[in-house]
Amino acid sequence: MSLKEFLEKDGFLHDREAMMMNKLVFDCRLALAMLDSRLQVFRGEVDHDGFDVIFDDGDLWKRFQVKTIFGKTGCWDIHRRLLRPTTDVADYFGFEASPEGIGLCGGVILQKLGITSAGALTVTYLYTDLDILQAFHLGIIRRKHKGSNKAAVALFQALKRGYETISIPQGAFLQAKGPSELLALAGFNTCECGPWIGWLRKLSARHRCASSRGLELPGTEEKTTELIRENSLKLTSDEV
């Protein structure tokens, strides 16, 4: 059986998922090890809450749904609760402190599989979470394709309503340059990219209220927007 057949056969779905989860964990643990740090990984036996794995580096603890793709899949159904903010950061995003507004502040990792001309397996990591969706919503990150950009922008507001799953298109994900950059997009301190997530949340809050107490930015809103864009885009190979 060829590698292509293995990746396409439904009968090997669970084998693929197990193998690629091991690949993800290895890559991310290696990225932390290169920084003289450790990554703790926790996995549940049953997925009841919309996530597959938890990463913990001692400073940040975050849940992730992991999807493996080979082919033309364009969108994925994700639990709203996974992406909604936790109580302590809900105000930054303008989400109400209610069961409909509060969640796990997790993220979604896509493992995009490919085959080289020599027949070797390749893995590309794509990522999204509430911070990235907010960056699209504020226009800090923009897709050149208007339809893709509009869909990504609309997702942030759509997360504020309902309890069911929400469909996330590939255009709402950023392609990480590598495992270290994947972790940095999720908020882990693995790359020199500045505290862009903290700046983004403060900028988001300032857009919603006149008071700036406790919301100091590194410069004007225009300068901060540019810093967020510059530092976040260091982590992605996407043209946005």
Your description of this structure?
The protein has 240 residues and is α+β, with helices and mostly antiparallel strands. It has one domain (3-176). It has helices spanning 3-8, 13-33, 80-83, 90-93, 130-137, 146-158, 179-185, 196-208, 221-233; strands at residues 40-43, 53-56, 61-69, 75-79, 107-115, 121-129, 165-169, 174-175. The strands form 2 sheets. Strands 1-2-3-5-6-8 form a 6-stranded mixed sheet.
Summary, kept brief:
The protein is α+β, with helices and mostly antiparallel strands and 240 residues long. Helix content is 37%, strand content 20%.
The spatial strand order of the largest sheet comes to 1-2-3-5-6-8
Summed up, the helix count is 9
- Beginning-to-end CA distance, first to last residue: 39 Å
Average pLDDT metric? 92
Order of helical and strand elements: HHEEEEHHEEHHEEHHH
Strand percentage lies at 15-25%
Name the poorly predicted regions.
none
Major sheet summary line: 6 strands, mixed
Radius of gyration, in angstroms, nearest whole number: 18 Å
- Helix/strand class: alpha+beta
How many E strands? Answer: 8
